[in-house]
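Holo model, nicotinamide-adenine-dinucleotide. Inputs:
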Amino acid sequence: MQKIRIGVFGLGRGSTYFDNITNNDGEIVAICERDDKKLTEALDYLGDITTGYKDFDEFIEHEMDAVFIANCFHEHVPFVLRALEKDLHVLSECTSNATMGEGVQLVRAAKKSKGIYMLAENYPYMLFNQEMKKVYDGGTLGKVLFAEGEYNHPFNFDNTEDHAMLRPYFKHWRNRLPRSYYITHSLAPLMNITGAFPKRVTAMPCFSPFDEYNTLGSPVADRAAIITTLNDDNSVFRVTGCAAFGAHGNSYRICCQNGQIENLRGMGEKVMLRYNSWQIPEGREEINCYDPEWEAVDKELAEKAGHGGGDFFVIKEFFDCIRSGRKPVFDEHFATTMASVAILAHRSILEKGMPYDIPDFRNEEDCKKWENDFTSPFFKKDGSEPDIPCCSKTDYVLDEGKLNNYLQITGEKE
Ligand SMILES: NC(=O)c1ccc[n+]([C@@H]2O[C@H](COP(=O)([O-])OP(=O)(O)OC[C@H]3O[C@@H](n4cnc5c(N)ncnc54)[C@H](O)[C@@H]3O)[C@@H](O)[C@H]2O)c1
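Output:
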């Protein structure tokens, strides 16, 4: 099998992929990270085959076939563009683009490049989501009418070690992440299972400030964004971005003409498939509750991989596309559609639920409308202020007590 030579940029999330890459006949020939400790640890782990860089300009000149872009959430596009210009294959972490204008740039660059673009979206590959896709594609449920997706990640305020690691400085992207922006883990599984693409979005926030003495350092006091999309097949999705309500977990429910399928919250991989009593297909019961199984060929590596096996399938699919010349399912169109839902859902929230049309950046008319819109809720690269608030209550500020709690556990780095 053709070995794929890959470079990894950003060694937080990036380093969690090392084994998956080598397990899929990939060779990590270069890594890039500005943090000395992370870079040294990774080089020790990977051995002589890998060259380390601190500077992207040098890293991108290394002889390789593909790059994995895993730097900060809102800063992927400028680096993705550089890689696509060099006709490298690009695997990018979520989100594909944090501004509408960057979405336009990304789709235009991918069109010109000989490289393949793929979003490293892993949640659709979780066991229950693969099972739901299999059942949906089987056709017994009929067409989707409505679906729900939740990615729910509450946190423990006492776990200050985690806060310091995940939000190491005040201007870090996690401290400014509007609730709708981290949307891919709730939305991608629904789009992948059903094939429906959002065309219109509206959203509402769940505003509820955290404890008086919290240690987050974040002015985002929303617990969730509840996002509704109307899709190109007339179905409706209701999804969260990254929520922090109820109990931890991610869940999906696909409601169709003849019945519904969902994974059961808090019940591991369990799937519940139900039909109406008058629409039960041959070989099924009215109520089918079961634990799906991995395909034998994937089982061993999927069980070793992070995110319920999802990380293994991301690399498997990316390398398969490179080797066969096939376009990935999570290509630039899929990825930028989700990013548009995320960005415009936040604008909807800031405008009391105003609906927005979701553009298709394969159409020049839609590109023209958004190509100059770089409005962002994040701090800029030069440290300057964000353009828009990151919280639904635009006058909400982190009080001094909370900020000091946070600074005590992190110290201000960068
Ligand atoms: N799919 C998933 O399940 C999943 C899980 C975690 C993170 N992610 C995504 O992965 C990406 C990274 O997340 P993270 O938690 O590692 O973020 P992070 O902010 O903790 O780490 C980013 C790393 O990139 C490095 N970096 C940033 N810019 C750089 C530059 N110009 N030159 C050199 N190094 C640079 C930083 O030093 C840091 O080590 C994000 O897009 C996030 O959304 C996805």
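The chain is about 35% helix and 20% strand. Residues 10-13, 32-35, 38, 56, 70-73, 93-94, 122, 307 surround nicotinamide-adenine-dinucleotide (CB under 6 Å).
Archived with the compound record.
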